[in-house]
Specification:
The protein has about 240 residues and is mainly α. The protein is about 80% helix and about 0% strand.
Length: about 240
Amino acid sequence: MLAIYKREMRAYFTTPIGFVVIALYFAMTAAVFALTVLFSAESTHIDYYFLAQILIFIILIPLLTMKLFSEEKRMKTEQLLLTSPIGLNAMVMGKFSAAFTMFACQFALSTFINTMITDLYGKVNFAVVIGNSVAILLIGAAFCAIGCFFSSLTENQIVAAVSTIAALAVLVGLNLLSSLLDGGFLVKMISWISIWERYNTFTYGYLHIGSLIYFASFVVIFLFLTVRVYERKRWA
């Protein structure tokens, strides 16, 4: 797993994708921070800043995950991985961990800098910052796992990225769909699936066990499906 992890981390910085994602992320978060915090009448209220992060990662995380498995297919190195002594679980976890590390480091650095800047304008509620940060990290982990799965289905990186963006957009947009319905079992089911309902439990600075399990389940399920894709290929 460690060898795969190091290989993927190195690949982010030997190809343009890592630098492009980092540049885009910091440019977008700087703009969002300026609009929602610095130019806001209530400068220490940073909920909208964190909310915007989710929308940003709908685009950026697929860019991080699109090449993880599709590149192996395109470069014809997939069979080397399948016949190597590294287990499928370790291979998938190594690639997932690399994408999550890239996402988490960018988010952590940006959040630290912007929180310190916000604290200059007034007292920041650090419980809220920590709660939102934990929620974003969990959402990012789920998004990375979904991206891994779609990358394992195709050799075209663009197809992998677009498919992941579409899936994440649907997942994030479920809450809007539930607001258009009158009520009943379907609304309850959609609300249960929607990440917004789970995310909101963290915005007040509380760690909710049910929400932790929800996001962990997303990661486990999609990584499991990714392993099954390669397990089928190994025995095909």
